[in-house]
Amino acid sequence: MLMKLILVGKLKDKMLLSKCEEYLKRLRHYGKLEVVELADSGIESEGKAILKELERDRVRDFIVLTEEGKEYSSVQLSNRLVSSDKKLVFLIGGPYGIAPEVKAAADTLWSLSKLTFPHEIARLLLCEQLFRAMNIANGGAYHHE
Q1: What are the tens digits of pLDDT across the range 8-52?
Q2: Residue 16 zone, left/alpha/beta (φ > 0; ψ -120 to 50; rest)
Q3: Which helix (H) or strand (E) segment is 112 a member of?
Q4: Residue 25 and residue 27: Cα distance in Å, rounded?
Q5: What does the pLDDT look like over 73-118, one tens digit per residue?
Q6: Are strands 60-70 and 87-92 parallel, antiparallel or unpaired?
Q7: What are the distances in angstroms from CA 3 to CA 35, 67, 140?
Q8: Strands of 60-70's sheet, edge to edge?
Q9: From the CB of residue 35, how many other CB atoms can be counted at a distance below 10 Å?
Q10: What's this model's pTM, rounded to 2 decimal places?
């Protein structure tokens, strides 16, 4: 499994950073993982940087986390991830949202919840849910139904 996370802005909270790093370390047991942090610089310039970063991954499944996206259960997310035969590229935008042209380039719009989260918390939720999904797919004991 190949995954890439494109994340706008630095994670400054040391507790959140520590938990994200823990889940990313666990996630790496399931395949190759690349993490790209882009500067928090406003929607327009962030959009250009994101699209430039996407050019590096020609055969990919681009998943944008946004409030208007589809919601998945953890099991549904696991099934969605393992059904892809492409590199999975996930994007969490900055605090002011995501440029319309970036959303238009997405293969999937995914919502973590109907609630709105700060991008730092969305990053932690993404890391945990990706680990959970891969653990489910591989028969691990982390997820309990």
Answers
A1: 999 999 999 999 999 999 999 999 999 999 999 999 999 999 999
A2: alpha
A3: none
A4: 5
A5: 999 999 999 999 999 999 999 888 999 999 999 999 999 999 988 8
A6: parallel
A7: 9, 22, 19
A8: 32-38, 2-8, 87-92, 60-70, 108-110
A9: 15
A10: 0.94
Residue 11: both structure tokens together: 């994670």
Look at the block and give the residue holding tokens 């492409």.
Answer: 86
85: tokens are 């035969």
E strands of the chain, at which residues? Answer: 2-8, 32-38, 60-70, 87-92, 108-110
Amino acid at 140: G
Which tokens hold the place of 80?
A: 């969605």
Which of 42, 43, 107 is CA-nearest to residue 69?
107
